[in-house]
Amino acid sequence: MSNDTNVDDPPEDAPSASEESEQDTRSQEREQEQTERQGARPSLEEDGRRGDVDDTETADDPVDGVNPATEVDESAPETDDGVETVNDLGSEVDVDPGVEIDEENAEDHLLGGLQIDSTDDIEVPDRLVDQVIGQDEARDIIIKAAKQRRHVMMIGSPGTGKSMLAKAMSQLLPQEDLQDVLVYHNPDDGNEPKVRTVPAGKGEQIIDAHKEEARKRNQMRSILMWIIIAIVIGYAILAANILLGILAAGIIWLIFRYTSRGTDAMVPNMIVDNGDKRTAPFEDATGAHAGALLGDVRHDPFQSGGMETPSHDRVEPGSIHKANKGVLFVDEINTLDIRTQQKLMTAIQEGEFSITGQSERSSGAMVQTEPVPCDFVMIAAGNLDAMENMHPALRNRIKGYGYEVYMEDTIEDTPEMRRKYARFVAQEVERDGRLPHFTDEAVEEIILEAKRRSGRKNHLTLHFRSLGGLVRVAGDIARAEDREYTTRDDVLQAKDRSRSIEQQLADDYIERRKDYELQVNEGGVEGRVNGLAVMGEDSGIMLPVMAEIAPAQGGGQVIATGKLQEMAEESVQNVSAIIKKFSDVDLSEKDIHIQFVQAGQQGVDGDSASITVATAVISALEDIPVDQSVAMTGSLSVRGDVLPVGGVTHKIEAAAKAGCSKVIIPKANEQDVMIEDEYEEMIEIIPCANISEVLDVALMGEPKKDSLVDRLKSITTNAFEQNQGTVGSASGSNPSPQ
């Protein structure tokens, strides 16, 4: 492959020296004109064209509606190796002059002390890397990786900023000499087109020169053709044989028409054009098929007779070629075919990759170009399951020559972070371009929702995509009313309108069960407990659990249906150790039947129903009724400890909607409760540390209940006291939603 950077040096079998000489003369004249025009301009920003950009200057193109800065603040502090640190980027929230930040009361102020009337007072950073919030470690890695041109793999939940960081990296990459890539016809072998790289902007000049040369040749051939045709027809008229003259003229026209295609084939095909780019390219190849990612050669239905398209004109670049000297971003990397991942790994390793037809039945499969440059920085992303189906060699290549980073779901709630969340709202308004700015009260409501969605006390969610959706819905409501600002009432309406599908289904289930009296929220029933579950990420629902004890027909077993079998068996095994200690009942002689009432086709996932199943089984064994005004959630250890679970806020709200007056949650989750104000008066929240406390609240019938609870307390209290430190530390973790 020829990898020349001087347009004076053509590849082998390229256009003739005289053609290149004329082309170079025109190129020099154009460069001189550009230099003179640029010298008369005061700055590069005023020039809409690429011009000559100095390698040390950072000039960024707009990305997704954001207008990045065209120059870097030279006063920004740097580390010893010249790499900016996290503390240097976006650490402060700039506001309009005259707007103060109350540092003394910042801790108790929802906006972190920002004294603003609306988000219009907040300045939005120009560079994307400065707009990233909460992912400090990931941002620091992106900065270092951009400086050293390292690959990065980011793993985390959707909507936590992976794609935004990838775009930011393309703005941070060191200034490189961008290149245009041309594909030439190979006269020796038409199925192996030649590849040539030239400095960005030169490719268009070369093609223009070739087109002009081809136009002149065709013009001369056309003049010659009509002269010959005129002579033939004139001779035919003199010979009184006009029909033969017309036939001869047609044959001459076809001959010239057929041979002229060879002249057009000499015009190269520019597959990568970076002439108008001023920063490193960014290519999002998420979900791309093999041809779009690796390049392809179009099928040619006309393969002979002079009607065929030259092979070099059918070459299509892939994302790996367009990302040359820039960033290739692939989200959900595990969805790529294994063979595609292998080829991608080869491209990363070699820095060049030939383009060939991806369909073996296409005529393009016979064509294979010389290697095409693809020296890109790879950013792979995905959820936790992405690592399972990812090619191990590809992951090893990224890890060996780059970084792996996990994206956080929540971040500690501090005044500084609240100020950044206020700036996030301003960023979303500016990025959309059609939304009214938010008042300070509206921003406070957004921050409260961020606290609530985190699922942890004193934390804020980092799922900004869904939070941004709330901002846009609220702004749309205000815009529909033609208001100047988006208010708190608009945000409250948006919270109801932007409910997830799971939340809408959960609310519908609750209403339907009330209509058919399937939901019991008063009185006492043996073996029936109101359990709580989460649908999706933000939707609570109440699922009653029923247990029945029957004599075993053979060996004792746990009988449940469908997907509930494994979870139900584990829950009963956990409680069986406690039952054996306080009861003389031999579970091997009993069949335990368990049903999750109308759990749906998806069943129940996780172990947050452990105390629900345990309570139902113990109630059925002892014939003690369960208070139906109580709902509960929690995991259970074999020693009777109630362990923390996720989604407690949404579960509590679901219990309140269902009409329950009490809800039992793990004591370790007490700090995670962030329910809406409307539910606080509707339901009493009772934290419990062990199974005896749960039964004390849930069971009815004083004599039998008191005896059972006393026996359980003697068994579980000591175990709980020994493991209290362990349970307490677990509360500080971030349990997954169950």
From TrEMBL:
PROSITE patterns in UniProt: LON_PROTEOLYTIC, LON_SER
Region (Disordered): 1-95
Transmembrane segments: 223-256
GO molecular function, one term: ATP binding
Cellular compartment(s): Cell membrane
Domain Lon proteolytic as annotated: residue spans: 523-701
Superkingdom, taxonomy of origin: Archaea
Active site: 608, 651
UniProt membrane topology term: Multi-pass membrane protein
GO CC annotations on file: plasma membrane
Keyword Ligase appears in the UniProt entry: no
Family matches, as InterPro entries: AAA+_ATPase, Lon_arc, Lon_proteolytic, Lon_Prtase, LonB_AAA-LID, Mg_chelatse_chII-like_cat_dom, P-loop_NTPase, Peptidase_S16_AS
Keywords: ATP-binding, Cell membrane, Hydrolase, Membrane, Nucleotide-binding, Protease, Serine protease, Transmembrane, Transmembrane helix
Group of enzyme by EC: hydrolase
Ranges of compositional bias, category Acidic residues: 1-12, 54-63, 71-83
A biological process from GO: protein catabolic process
SUPFAM superfamilies recorded: P-loop containing nucleoside triphosphate hydrolases (SSF52540), Ribosomal protein S5 domain 2-like (SSF54211)
Record bears the keyword Protease: yes
Ranges annotated as biased composition (Basic and acidic residues): 23-53
EC number: 3.4.21.-
Quaternary organization: Homohexamer. Organized in a ring with a central cavity.
PANTHER family reported in the protein's UniProt record: ATP DEPENDENT LON PROTEASE FAMILY MEMBER
Family affiliation: Belongs to the peptidase S16 family. Archaeal LonB subfamily.
Function comment: ATP-dependent serine protease that mediates the selective degradation of mutant and abnormal proteins as well as certain short-lived regulatory proteins. Degrades polypeptides processively.
Listed name of the protein: Archaeal Lon protease
